[in-house]
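Database export, one record per block. Field names are fixed; values are copied verbatim from the stored entry.
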Amino acid sequence: MIQPINIDMGSLNFVSLVPMILAIVGGLVILVIDLTNDKLNKSFYVMMSELFILLSLGAVFGYSGDSRGFFDVILIDGIAKLGEAIVLIASALFILLALTTKRFHEFAYPEFFALFLFMIGGFEFMVSSDNLIMIFIGLETSSLALYTMIAMHNRSRSIEAAIKYFTMGALASGLYVFAAVMFYYATGSLEIHKMAEVVGSKGFAGLPFVLTGVVFMIAAFGFKLSMVPFHTWTPDVYEGASAALAGYMSIVPKIAGFVVAMRMFEFLIHANVVWVQDVLYLVAVLTMTLTNIMALVQQSVKRMLAYSSISHAGFAMSAILIGTTQANSALFLYWVLFTFTNLGAFTMLWVSRHKSKGWAGTRFDHPYEKFSGMIAIMPVNAVIMGMFMLSLAGVPPFSLFWGKLYIMSAAVDAGFVGLALIMALNSAISVYYYLKLVVYMFLKDPISNDGTIYLKNSSASLKVVLGVAAAGTLFAIFMANPMLKIITEYVKMSGF
C-alpha cells in the first residue's frame, strides 16, 4: 500500500513567494479586467502595473522569515533582495513612460502590461533561487514575455529583432539545460549550494561532467549577458526595440543574469578551479575592449549605446571573477548607478525622437547628426543628455565614476592589478565616443528641427523619470559611499 506523503504547510514558507506572486497576479488581473471592459484608458493599466510593482517591492524588503521556502527551491538572501530591488525599481521607472503621449504602438495594448508583469515575476524567480530548474523557469518566463513585447513595437525591424532574440535565447536555453544535466549527473543535485558541497568533498579530478557543465553554462550566460563572442545579436535587437525598452533590456535582464552567474561561478572560483577564473577573465576583457572599439565606429547613437552597454556588462563580469565581498558589493553599486544613467540616456533618445522617418536619409532613427546643435534647440535636453554621457564615460564626479572606481579598487585589493589597468584603459577609450555626442550637441550648428519633442512640452511622468535618472547621476557623489555600505551588509548576509 502506498503511504500518503505528509507535507507540513508551514515549512513550505509560502510568504517567500509573495513578491513573485504579486507580479504574476497583477498580470492576470489586467487580463481579466481587459476581458470584462476593453474600453479602459491605458493610464489605468499603467497605474495598475505600478501598484503591483510597488507592492512587490514592499514585500521584498518587508520579508523577515526563513531564507528558504517552497520545497527549498526559493532562496531569499541578501543578493536576492538586492537583485529584486534593482529589477523592481527599474521597472517602476520604465512603466511610467507609458503615461506619456501615445507614440509607441505597444502601449495601446493591455497585454503589454500583463506581459511586463509576467516578465518581472520571471526575473524575481531567477534571482530568488539557487535551484537550476527554478532559475530556468524564471528565465523562460521572462524571456518569452520580453520577445513578445519587442515584437509588439510593430515595425519590420521589431519583428526581426524579436526573432533574432528568440533564436539566440532558445540556443542559450538549450546550452543551459545541457549544463544542468551535466551538473545533475555529476553531483546528484540541481541546487547550487549542494553542488558546491559535493564538488568540495570530491574535488574536480573525478568530476569531468562538472567541467563539461561549466563550459556550457559559461556559453549560456555568454548569450544571456551579451558577452563576447556571444554578443552579436544585441545591437540589432536594441535597434529594433523602442528606445525606452532597449534601455530597460540593457539593465534588468542583465542584473538577473549576473545574480545567477555570481551564485554559479563563484563557488567554482573559491574551489580554486583556476581555468574557470581564466576563462571569465578572458571573456570580461574581450567584452570590455572589443565592444568599446566597435562603439567607436557606430553612426547611430542607439547602436553606440548598445555596444557601450555590452562593455559595461564586461565591467560587471570582472567583479564576478574577482569573487570577493568587496567586488560583489561594487557590482551591485555599479549596476544601481548604471540603472539610472543608462535608462535615462535611452529615454532621452525617445524624448529627442523626430517625427520624420528615415532621418537624413539614413537607416537609423538616431544618427549623431540629428543631435547637432541640440543646445540651441533643446538646451535642457542637451544638458541632461550631456550629463548622462559624462557619467557613462566615468568622468568624475558623476555616478558611474564611483562604480568603476570601486570595482577597480576591488581588483587591485584582490591582486588583479592588470585587470584594473585594462578597466581604466577601456574607460579612457569610451570617453571618445561619449564625448563625440557631446560635441555634436554643444559645438555643431543645428541641421533641422522637424517636429522634435521638447522636454518642456513632455508629460509629467516623463519629467519624473528623467528627473530621477538625472538626480541619481548627479548626486552619486553624496550617495555612493552610504549606498555601498548598505549593499555590503546585504552581500555579507548571503556569504558572498
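Remark 1: The longest helix spans residues 156-187.
Remark 2: The first strand starts at residue 68 and ends at 69.
End of record.
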